[in-house]
């Protein structure tokens, strides 16, 4: 009887999840050997991580002749229903963007909410953004602040940036607190969030939130933000270069900002090209 129990337990372990097999499948996926990843992952389909990997393969048709969104959705949904926070987040994104399914912010929120309560930090931040912007739901700054706070406490740089901005405005669900604003932006910037780097630089330019005015520190942060791709920082550096007479450098910054969709940067380029 004891031997039979051990064999049954071992068999159950193989059915539920073979961690080594998933590791090998993931390594193959990361090295872009998609056929190998598919072959291995299909041998352990009851593992949540493998289901997500299979979903990633099928959704883009990696390692196969063509994509199969229906199968991808099935794998993601199975994992999500099996309490995978990552799969719940992925489904939230699919419904938010309307990728392969009819766009539904309500369904997206349902999945984000499940993932967020399941400890998924990106989902917590995403919910904060949706409530902050009123994206698909009534705008609610109080709920936005609650979700951003939860994610910020879990060390999410983006949530720290948004929450810092809320502490900089009296009508955003929290009482204005420039010390808290500066604290959050410093933490976010230290984690490499580009927009926080830019705004921290702005704080150093004027001196606020307990931070002393320091032009050198300001430019260090603003330059880093531009290098990290902050649209606002790129435009700012373009303006600075143009004011100093370095038109070539200005065009470089404006072009990068315009490529990211900043209309006023494109207008600056047009003006320069027209000799204005």
Description of the structure:
The protein has 276 residues and is mainly alpha-helical. The chain folds into 4 domains: 22-82; 84-176, Tetratricopeptide repeat domain (Serine Threonine Protein Phosphatase 5, Tetratricopeptide repeat); 177-224, no CATH class; 229-276, no CATH class. The protein has 16 helices and no strands. The protein has helices spanning 2-16, 19-30, 34-41, 48-60, 69-81, 85-97, 105-117, 121-133, 141-153, 157-166, 178-190, 194-206, 215-227, 231-243, 247-259, 263-273. Helix 13 packs across helix 14 (231-243). The longest helix has 15 residues, at 2-16. The chain is globular and about 60 Å long.
Offer a quick outline of the entry:
The protein is an all-alpha fold and 276 residues long. The chain contains 16 helices and no strands. The chain has four domains: 22-82; 84-176, Serine Threonine Protein Phosphatase 5, Tetratricopeptide repeat (Alpha Horseshoe); 177-224, no CATH class; 229-276, no CATH class.
What general form does the structure show? globular
Q: Radius of gyration, Cα only, in angstroms?
A: 24 Å
Query: DSSP helix count?
Result: 16
Whole-number tally of structural domains = 4
What is the rounded distance between the termini? 89 Å
Tell me which CATH architecture of the largest domain applies here. Alpha Horseshoe
Main pleated sheet: none
Helix-strand string? HHHHHHHHHHHHHHHH
| CATH homologous superfamily caption of the largest domain | Tetratricopeptide repeat domain
User: Beta-strand level of the residues, as a percent range?
Assistant: under 5%
CATH class of the largest domain: Mainly Alpha
What fraction, in percent, of the residue positions are helical?
A: over 70%
């Amino acid at each position: 009887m004891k031997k039979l129990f051990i064999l049954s337990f071992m068999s159950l372990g193989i059915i539920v999840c073979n961690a080594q097999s998933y590791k090998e499948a993931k390594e193959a996926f990361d090295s872009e050997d998609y056929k190998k990843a598919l072959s291995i992952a299909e041998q352990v389909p009851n593992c949540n991580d493998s289901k997500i990997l299979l979903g990633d393969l099928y959704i883009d048709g990696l390692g196969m002749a063509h994509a199969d969104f229906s199968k991808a959705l099935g794998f993601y949904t199975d994992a999500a229903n099996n309490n995978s926070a990552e799969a719940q987040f992925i489904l939230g994104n699919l419904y938010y963007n309307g990728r392969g399914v009819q766009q539904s912010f309500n369904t997206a929120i349902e999945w984000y909410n499940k993932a967020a309560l399941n400890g998924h930090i990106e989902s917590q931040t995403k919910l904060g953004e949706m409530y902050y912007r009123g994206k698909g739901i009534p705008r609610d700054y109080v709920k936005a602040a609650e979700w951003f706070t939860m994610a910020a406490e879990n060390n999410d740089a983006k949530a720290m940036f948004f929450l810092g901005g809320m502490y900089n405005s009296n009508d955003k669900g929290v009482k204005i607190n420039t010390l808290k604003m500066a604290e959050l932006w410093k933490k976010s910037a230290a984690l490499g969030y580009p927009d926080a780097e830019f705004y921290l630089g702005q704080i150093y330019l004027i001196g606020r939130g307990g931070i002393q005015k320091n032009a050198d520190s300001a430019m260090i942060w603003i330059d880093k933000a531009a290098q990290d791709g902050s649209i606002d920082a790129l435009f700012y550096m373009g303006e600075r270069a143009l004011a100093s007479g370095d038109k070539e450098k200005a065009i470089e910054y404006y072009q990068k900002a315009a490529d990211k969709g900043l209309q006023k940067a494109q207008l600056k380029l047009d003006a320069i090209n027209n000799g204005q």
